[in-house]
Amino acid sequence: MIGSRAKCRTILDKLAGDGFGEADLGRIHAPIGLELGGPTPAEIALAILAEIVAVRHSALDTAHPVIYPRNNPLEKLAAQQRPADAA
């Protein structure tokens, strides 16, 4: 789901209130996109596609929590490669 963490949480809370279970909500990637640190639309698009490809190739856990913590191995690698002043 594309949106801020707050918007995603609001929508997911509404879906839970409407009767969607943990299994249903657990399949939603929210907010979508790896945390690559890029602010431009092109970089955001790349982050979204990177997550799609990673999930497709099982490089990310496909059953991550609804608003999952940003602690997967690909994001840790990206954070290590980011210049110190960009962190």
Summarize the structure.
The protein is mostly helical.
Question: Describe it for me?
Answer:
The chain is 49% helix and 0% strand. The chain contains four helices and no strands. It has one domain (5-86): Rossmann fold, CATH 3.40.50. The chain has helices spanning 5-17, 22-26, 41-56, 73-81. It is mostly helical.
Order of helices and strands: HHHH
CATH architecture field: 3-Layer(aba) Sandwich
Radius of gyration in whole Å, from Cα?
14 Å
Helix content: 40-55%
Structural class: mainly alpha
Unreliable stretches:
62-72
Oligomer: single chain
Domain unit count: 1
* Shape call: globular
Biggest sheet statistics: none
Strand count:
0
How many helices? The count is 4
Mean pLDDT: 76
| CATH level 4 superfamily | NAD(P)-binding Rossmann-like Domain
Calculate the terminal CA-CA distance, rounded to whole Å.
25 Å
The proportion of residues in beta strands is under 5%
What CATH first level would be assigned? Answer: Alpha Beta
